[in-house]
Write a structure and sequence with these properties.
The chain has one domain (2-214). The chain has 7 helices and no strands. It has helices spanning 2-23, 28-49, 57-98, 104-115, 121-146, 158-185, 192-214. It starts with a helix and ends with a helix. This is DUF5134 domain-containing protein. It comes from Mycetocola zhujimingii. The chain crosses the membrane at residues 26-45, 52-72, 127-146, 158-179, 191-214. Residues 98-117 are annotated as: Disordered.
């Protein structure tokens, strides 16, 4: 049963990686990082779940955490760039508002440019989600490799507490990913790609958490 759940978790992970790699636009640096992170997570999951032995599990854990540490400052850069884009949008809107003639094309262009900007709060939130996902996945891979579960040791021992914290954190992040997917779907300008990416992350993590929780 646990092996089936691990294999099932690879399906949404593969789907999410395909969405991330094939559907990104905008900044090459930011989209390239997210695409590389998605592929790295999928390959690491497949390697550990299928016992392929491509890379030692501890190296996968270190690599995913290192990628997450790279993504966090990229998120700050994206947010700073978004502030500049928002300032330019405000200036354009002010000029259009003061114009004696309606300038709908200018406003529409400004709205489209701001909406599709590869920087800003939306890009920052996406990078933060990817970085946190890398950290959560690293913790789950460590548990998979070690064969730990929340019931391996006594609830009063440190060895039993760590798997419980990792599984609890992963379950919480899966819930957050599901909430993020629903939120992106309900936006006035629907972000279907981001919705699918977050949903696939939530499904993959939920299956992995279920598999590790059942392995007693």
């Amino acid at each position: 049963m646990t092996e089936l759940l691990h294999l099932s978790a690879l399906l949404p992970a593969a789907f999410g990686a395909c969405c991330t790699v094939g559907g990104r636009r905008g900044s090459r640096v930011l989209s390239g990082f997210e695409g590389f992170a998605a592929v790295a997570m999928f390959v690491a999951m497949a390697d550990v779940a299928l016992n392929l032995g491509l890379v030692a599990p501890i190296l996968w854990v270190v690599a995913l955490v290192a990628l997450a540490l790279v993504g966090l400052p990229l998120g700050r850069v994206a947010r700073a760039g978004g502030n500049a884009s928002a300032s330019l949008f405000n200036e354009t809107a002010q000029v259009a508002a003061n114009s004696p003639l309606p300038d709908r094309p200018a406003r529409s262009s400004a709205n489209a440019a701001l909406r599709d900007s590869p920087t800003g709060p939306a890009a920052h939130a996406s990078l933060l989600h990817s970085s946190l996902g890398l950290i959560v996945m690293a913790g789950l891979l460590a548990l998979m490799a070690a064969g730990h579960t929340a019931s391996v040791a006594s609830h009063h021992s440190a060895n039993g507490l760590l798997p419980t914290l990792v599984l609890g954190g992963a379950a919480t992040f899966a819930g957050y990913s599901a909430w993020r997917s629903a939120t992106l779907y309900r936006l006035p300008v629907r972000n279907l790609l981001g919705c699918l990416e977050a949903a696939s992350m939530a499904a993959s993590l939920a299956l992995m958490v279920g598999a590790l929780a059942l392995r007693a």
